[in-house]
Amino acid sequence: MKVYVLSRPSLDKGELKRFLDDQGVSWESTSTVDGDVLCEVAGRVCYMSFANPRPGGNRAYLEHIKECGHGSVLEHAVWTFLVTGVSRSLTHELVRHRAGFSYSQLSQRYVFEKDGEFVEPDIIAGDEELHSVWLACVEKAHGGYVRLANLLEEKLANKDVSAKWLWRYHTVTDLRKVALQAARSVLPNCTETKIVFSANARALRHFIELRGSRDADWEMRKLANELLNIMQREAPNIFSDYIRVMLPDGTFEVDTEHKKV
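and the corresponding structure tokens:
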């Protein structure tokens, strides 16, 4: 599993200064991290608390936001991630997170998985017998997929067959798509995929809390921990409250006293 940060919040400090000048106040955040500052600004606008900020700076301010559950101000900071080396089983669960998330995923209708890879669960990979059974199943499924895809293309090249399954004025791409979308039916959930998703800080907190739980799927918990590692660098004051607890399998559960902010 690899996670790439494609984009992050960018605060226009000139526009912020122009706003403060228009309001006749002077204020500067103690943080230099745009995501943390952006959420602080959003919160301070709600009460126009720039002139008389409470002690402790950005970290204390965002800690208070989490304590009182004013999570809506965290929705203004948005990041975009590219994730590779994960299974379609994971992405089936990931895309159930709708509020605050947007997705674009590798298509199995247009991309031929001839050289496709597969994600093996750790509990299986660590046992020689289990791994042997898993590998045999995956290889058989993948072999059947490749054979089906090639046979379907051959059969669809016949005009009598294509007339039934394709529009009259179809392209080679259309033919390939029909073949691949049928063949993919035999691919297992562990087929590797790539997905781009954007999410705001509040949505990410919810994901990390829910999927970082010991009751979550092992692969989802792994992603939640990786995202937490990233977000504690990207927005340390928004994500400062999380702790990790080691589980018997060597992975970590994520917890916080500020749940459902």
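(Above: one complete record from the training split.) Residues 154 and 179 are 9 Å apart (CA to CA).
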